[in-house]
Amino acid sequence: MENFTPVSAAIGGAMIGLSAVWLMASAGRIAGISGIVGGALDAGKGDKLWRWTFLAGLLLAPLIVGFFDASFLEIDFPTTGSLLVLAAVLVGIGTQLGNGCTSGHGVCGNARLSIRSLLATLTFMGTGIVTVFIMRSLGGV
Amino acid sequence: MRIPISTFIAGLLFGGGLTVSQMVNPEKVISFLDVTGNWDPSLAFVMGGALIVTFLGYKLVLKRRGPLFDDRFRLPTRKDIDAPLLGGAALFGVGWGLAGLCPGPAIASASFAGPNAYIFVGTMIATVFIYRFIKARA
Questions:
Q1: CB–CB of A132 and B33 under 8 A?
Q2: What pLDDT, in 10s, does the model give residues B70-119?
Q3: Domain locations in chain B?
Q4: Which of A24, A49, A71, A140 has the greatest number of C-beta atoms within 10 Å?
Q5: What pLDDT does A139 receive?
Q6: Contact at 8 Å (CB) between B24 and A23?
Q7: Is residue A97 part of a domain?
Q8: CB spacing of A31 vs B15 below 8 angstroms
Q9: Looking at residue B70, what is its pLDDT?
Q10: Is the ipTM reported for this complex over the cut 0.85?
């Protein structure tokens, strides 16, 4: 546990929560990234712009944080190549089929005490843990 | 224009939170899921912090008649537990564990992390597009 960073994690988490609350308070929307992305591609005309500006903010934010402390931008991708592509396909299909991801189900849905979101969260946490366990056992990553 | 500007601010806050919490770091996410190995529980604090703020904030906000800049709150209404929900979540979890990336952090990392982020986000978005295209026609 040498890399344990509970304080910055909780502060970042609170910022994510504030974002979700502000998005609901101002625009009446759930802060679910997979849903926002899906609609950004094919929603009706009046339902698109707000998604793209949200995504623009999402992209810009790390650069602002990095301007003050570049160490936040030092990240590692343990998985590369074809496994990375496979993972992206699974995340793409899984979040659309299951109607949500870590943000939509994990944060917003659970905050609304949705049973669907609770079960989805337990399921993806479970398969995520099993997947990492198998990868570690096979000596990958 | 008030809605796109307010959602831009929401995106900034969201991405800032993902960055400060290191949720954008795939290595960190995999360490969080590695409960039987060298477990790093930090990301539980991200989830916890986000959940507490959202739970309390939603309680206040959803008491109002509607959002500031639109006519109503758009909340999911489904309550049924079905196979697509659990199957989709299961597949998503496998992808999340394999790469250490879920949609928000992946997109945020595309502004600074280079080729691996492009590959993941490009593939994910293409998959989402194809999935939705097929579903709309089925």
A1: yes
A2: 999 999 999 999 999 999 999 999 999 999 999 999 999 999 999 999 99
A3: 2-137
A4: A24
A5: 77
A6: no
A7: yes
A8: no
A9: 96
A10: yes
Classify residue A111: in a domain, yes or no.
Answer: yes
Q: How far apart are CA B70 and CA B63, in angstroms?
A: 15
By residue range, what is the domain housing residue A89? 78-141
| A93 belongs to a structural domain | yes
Which residues of chain B are within 8 Å of residue A121 when distances are taken between CB atoms? 89
Confidence band of A1 (pLDDT split at 50, 70, 90):
very low
Structure tokens of A89?
A: 């396909």
Chain A residues close to B117, C-beta within 8 Å: 77
B91 touches A: beta carbon within 8 Å:
yes
- pLDDT beyond 60 at A118: yes
CB distance B16 to A22 below 8 Å: no
Enumerate residues 6+ apart whose C-beta is below 8 A from A90: B91, B92, B94, B95, B98
Q: Mutate which of A55, A77, A82, A112 to disrupt the B interface (most B C-beta within 10 Å)? A: A77
**Which residue is closest to B4 within chain A, CA to CA?**
A50
For the four alpha carbons of B41, A85, A123 and A36, in that order, the dihedral sign comes to positive
For chain A, say whether B118 makes contact (Cβ under 8 Å): no
Residue A127 lies in a domain: yes
Q: Are A54 and B7 within 8 A, CB to CB?
A: yes
CB contact (8 A) between residue B99 and residue A111: no
